[in-house]
Design brief:
This protein is an alpha/beta fold and about 210 residues long. Helix content is about 55%, strand content about 15%. Strands 2-3-1-4-5 form a 5-stranded parallel beta sheet, with helices on both faces. Helix 2 packs antiparallel against helix 3. It is globular and about 45 Å long. It binds thymidine-5'-diphosphate. Thymidine-5'-diphosphate binds next to helix 4.
Length: about 210
């Protein structure tokens, strides 16, 4: 493998992305691949500092500030971690990436999509995922999982209507890029979800 593979995981809060990323990583390592697991916002020292800021629900920040913070974190993440790992031939598994910006800051906050795409291209130097797994589920069901976890961040305070809008935006994005974005039902068993992801991955690895 010359260039590595960049795989991102997207979906609303509580879809089980983190669990699946860990399982996919173990499977890939068993197959002999070098894997880097990371997340957004975050993944590097500077980006993790920005994460603390942007997810702090007590800080009143504007939508523009929020957008630029996510993108600032991404620019550091790409430069310091993702691109070097891909250049070393590794497989990078990332919990959230540009699609989250298009959905949360675009549909969620009303920032114009064209502006977001331009800023995102600047932040990433146009590095796009090879495959994106979208874990999709009914917001009501996902809310039950979230509450069980007991974590509340800026978006988790927004309520069900917001979560529904986010879900629709993710699905619309997936429909517009069906080759890259694969939608998987997040409410089925963890084993079935993993099976579906691994089927997608095996197809990609065989290319
Ligand atoms: P996190 O605690 O990682 O939640 P999750 O388990 O849902 O991934 O919080 C990340 C939050 O940041 C999540 O609510 C989505 C939001 N986000 C954006 O709004 N824009 C972005 O570009 C990214 C990467 C995340």
């Amino acid at each position: 493998m010359k260039q590595g593979l960049f795989i991102t995981f997207e979906g609303a809060d509580g879809t089980g992305k983190t669990t699946q990323i860990a399982k996919v990583a173990s499977w890939l390592r068993e197959q002999g691949y070098e894997v880097v697991c990371t997340r957004e916002p975050g993944g590097t020292k500077a980006a993790e500092r920005i994460r603390e800021l942007v997810l702090d629900a007590e800080l009143a920040i504007s939508h523009k500030t929020e957008t630029l913070l996510y993108l600032a974190a991404r620019a550091d993440h790409i430069t310091q971690l993702i691109r070097p790992a891909l250049q070393a031939g590794k497989i990078v598994l990332c919990d959230r990436f540009s699609d989250s910006t298009f959905v949360y800051q675009g549909s969620g906050r009303g920032v114009e999509l064209q502006t977001l795409k331009m800023l995102d291209d600047f932040a990433t130097s146009s590095l796009h995922p090879d495959l994106t797994i979208l874990l999709d589920g009914e917001p009501e069901e996902l809310a039950i999982r979230r509450n069980a976890r007991g974590v509340v961040d800026r978006f988790e305070l927004e309520g069900l209507a917001f979560q529904k809008k986010i879900r629709e935006a993710f699905l619309a994005l997936a429909a517009s890029e069906p080759t890259r974005i694969h939608v998987i039902d997040a409410l089925q068993s963890e084993e079935n979800i993993l099976d579906e992801i691994l089927t997608d991955l095996q197809r990609l690895l065989a290319k």
